[in-house]
């Protein structure tokens, strides 16, 4: 089953690099160019220079040069001995202060076919190509994959909580009021116990599918080039592992924005929806999320179809069995997902947005923000939008266990993990 191990992490020396807040950044794929430049203006040693390089004729080669320079100058230093890293995020979601805590370690990457590491979403080729080029140039993980594991007795979490009772080694609160804490664990007995806990576990990828598939591609590339063999460092990639039953786990919905259709007729869409859905009209969006949440508690599949100026329609699926007829090749877990229902019955059948169109985001884009899903329509950026309930963690587990994948952008684990507190150099 899953093989995890400690490693000598690469970390910033804050005495040389600057305060930890000024050298960390969010994941590369949610940072705008304006934000990137702002991070660099605040501190030229920000990790963004490595994680999202843009300078030079070959940005990937530039990242390699910067990495070497920072190591030579002592801006980045290696841990003196193998360590596991306990990472905690304290944040606000749905009006409550919560926290999530888990383990940063190395995980041996395995092909999905082996059933040890299980994905739940499809990926995009362009993103993987970019990450692979960066790894080829730097031979380093600057950010971690986000994984979940099942542990009904919460034995590992109990150990993690006990090891993090002391004051943390690093901490800061970012501009989104998320507090990040890191504990460095070098006790050999504790490391051995935690690593042994995973001998009979599977890992479910929560976030970072592109990073994981890139890790497999990089490992294979290293072997093909003759620069690595089985068991070498490139077989192991940095991951954050969290108990699937952790009370702080939060998954936000990812809403759908429909745009640039040649023709869009609201009345025609609603008429076609009536074949599968009960349709109710509303002229005020204030309680839309609550109405959808109540439907979810009742076990109903429901969406908010927003058409602009406060007008929206509650679409409640009449009978889930229609999905058995349309998608008999999929498991019950996949057929029952809200996103599968929406994509199959509305986006594909009514709008004609097929899977290839979705992958290329020709007529479909995404947002985790409810307000943005509405404003995009009001401002004419989108022709309509669909507001969803969040995917449940157990649904992610069930789909992954069946060896199947959800449509892209089915989940948004919140908050994203910070980049820059610890890195994994693959030597």
Protein architecture, described:
It is a single chain. The chain is an alpha+beta fold and 427 residues long. The protein folds into two domains: 4-250 and 414-425, no CATH class; 254-389, no CATH class. The protein is 35% helix and 24% strand. It contains 17 helices and 21 strands. It has helices spanning 14-17, 20-23, 33-42, 48-51, 59-73, 125-138, 155-163, 188-197, 209-224, 266-273, 288-297, 322-326, 332-335, 338-348, 355-360, 370-378, 393-401; strands at 4-5, 10-12, 76-78, 84-93, 96-108, 117-118, 140-141, 145-149, 170-173, 179-185, 203-207, 236-243, 250-252, 255-258, 277-282, 302-308, 311-317, 364-367, 384-387, 412-414, 424-425. Strands 1, 4, 5, 6, 8, 9, 10, 11 and 12 form a nine-stranded mixed beta sheet that branches. Helix 5 packs across helix 6 and helix 6 (125-138) crosses helix 9.
């Amino acid at each position: 089953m899953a093989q995890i191990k400690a490693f000598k992490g690469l970390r910033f020396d804050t005495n040389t690099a600057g305060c930890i807040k000024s050298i960390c950044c969010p994941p590369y794929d949610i940072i705008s160019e304006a934000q990137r430049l702002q991070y660099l203006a605040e501190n030229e040693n920000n990790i963004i220079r490595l994680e999202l390089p843009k300078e030079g004729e070959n940005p990937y080669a530039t990242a390699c040069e910067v990495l070497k320079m920072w190591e030579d100058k002592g801006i980045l230093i290696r841990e003196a001995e193998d360590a596991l890293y306990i990472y905690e995020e304290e944040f606000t979601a749905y009006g409550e202060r919560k926290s999530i805590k888990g383990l940063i370690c190395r995980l041996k990457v395995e092909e999905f076919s082996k059933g040890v590491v299980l994905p739940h979403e499809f990926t995009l080729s362009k993103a993987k190509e970019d990450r692979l080029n960066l790894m080829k140039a730097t031979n380093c993980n600057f950010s971690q994959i986000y994984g979940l594991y099942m542990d009904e007795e919460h034995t590992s979490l109990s150990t993690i909580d006990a090891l993090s009772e002391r004051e943390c080694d690093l901490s800061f609160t970012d501009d989104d009021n998320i507090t990040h804490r890191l504990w460095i664990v070098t006790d050999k007995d504790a490391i051995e116990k935690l690593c042994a806990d995973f001998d009979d576990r599977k890992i479910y990828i929560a976030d970072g599918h592109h990073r994981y598939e890139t890790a497999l591609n990089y490992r294979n590339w290293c072997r093909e080039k003759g620069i690595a063999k089985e068991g070498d460092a490139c077989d192991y990639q940095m991951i954050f592992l969290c108990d699937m039953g952790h009370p702080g786990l939060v998954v936000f919905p990812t809403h759908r924005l429909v745009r640039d259709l040649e023709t869009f007729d609201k009345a025609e869409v609603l008429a076609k929806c009536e074949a599968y859905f009960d349709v109710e009209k509303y002229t005020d969006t204030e309680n839309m999320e609550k109405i959808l949440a109540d439907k979810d508690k009742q076990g109903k599949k429901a969406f908010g179809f927003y058409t602009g100026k406060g007008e929206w329609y509650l679409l409640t699926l009449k009978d889930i069995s229609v999905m058995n007829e349309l998608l008999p090749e999929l498991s019950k877990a996949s057929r029952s997902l809200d996103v599968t229902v929406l994509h199959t019955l509305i986006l594909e059948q009514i709008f004609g947005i097929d899977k290839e169109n979705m992958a290329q985001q020709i007529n479909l884009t995404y947002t985790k923000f409810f307000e943005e899903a509405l404003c995009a329509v009001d401002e004419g950026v989108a022709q309509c939008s669909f507001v969803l309930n969040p995917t449940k963690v157990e649904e992610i587990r069930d789909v992954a266990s069946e060896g199947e994948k959800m449509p892209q952008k089915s989940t948004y684990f919140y908050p994203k993990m910070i980049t820059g507190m610890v890195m994994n150099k693959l030597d």
